[in-house]
Amino acid sequence: MPKAKLADLVRRCQKLLRPDTFCDWDGACNGLQVENSGRVGRIAACVDASLATIKLAIHAEADLMIAHHGLFWSPAVPWTGMRREMLELLVKNNLAVYSSHLPLDAHPRLGNNARLCAALGFKNLQPFFLHKGRHIGWQARTILSRQALAKKLAAVLGRAPLLLPGGGGHCQRIGVVTGGAGAEMKIAAQEGVDTFVTGEGPHWTYATAEDLGLNVFYGGHYATETFGVKALAAELSKTFGLPWTFLDHPTGL
């Protein structure tokens, strides 16, 4: 099996995603979170780095795990119980972890938002959703009924989306931001879209969507964020000639 240097893969990721140009959530810790002995023969991609996905990566005989949500969203200490087990598995199985959050959301070719737009057939995309000083989403102009868009989303995501029908029956300006952007739907409305596609949002956003006259589709946080890690792993596979696999561990959320 061919092997590549971990440092070379990390350097390629950093060049592609440019995490140093993003202001992200404190727990994101974009970049290499755990190193291994320095060589990679197989890549695994997942949405969430967790004990469960680490076990899946080990079963897949991966040396590098690419994650969208990394290991450090909550306080990283103490390393007891399941956290100790996770650390032990990482070290014993020589598994490196690379994580990318907002940089992978926003990437114009490999990002969650760009890949979801491509899967939906949206073209001529424009930057959308200014968040922490950067546009992280994309918007498209088209004419689709709400029912037609719901069917497209269901086909692409593998699950029926939840619709908050605050706007009209036809969608003409659609904004896409994967993950948990529902609580920030006012940003979407302020930027002029009539339909907002995201992953999830709190209960009170139903009334907010009505107040804003905005159609909102919740496709699931997990389901909308499988695209970026797959695209990044495929990019690394093509560049370095390494096999890769997707570790599907859906949350249902």
Helices and strands in order:
Elements: E1 4-5, H1 6-17, E2 31-34, E3 39-40, E4 43-48, H2 51-59, E5 64-69, H3 82-92, E6 96-99, H4 102-106, H5 112-119, E7 126-131, E8 134-145, H6 146-157, E9 162-165, E10 170-176, H7 185-190, E11 195-198, H8 205-212, E12 215-218, H9 221-224, H10 227-240, E13 244-246
Parallel strand pairs: 4-5, 4-13, 5-6, 10-11, 11-12
Antiparallel strand pairs: 1-3, 2-6, 7-8, 8-10, 9-12
Helix pairs in contact: 2-3, 5-10
Q: What fold name stands as the CATH topology of the largest domain?
A: Udp-n-acetylmuramoylalanyl-d-glutamate--2,6- Diaminopimelate Ligase, Chain: A, domain 1
Query: What are the segments in which pLDDT stays under 50 over at least 5 consecutive residues?
Result: none
Identify the overall geometry: elongated
Task: Give, in spatial order, the strands making up the sheet with the most strands.
Answer: 7-8-10-11-12-9
- What is the SS-derived class? alpha/beta
Helix content: 25-40%
Percent in strands = 25-35%
pLDDT averaged over residues = 97
State the CATH superfamily name of the largest domain: NIF3 (NGG1p interacting factor 3)-like
Query: How many DSSP E strands?
Result: 13
Q: Please report the number of helical segments.
A: 10
Radius of gyration: 19 Å
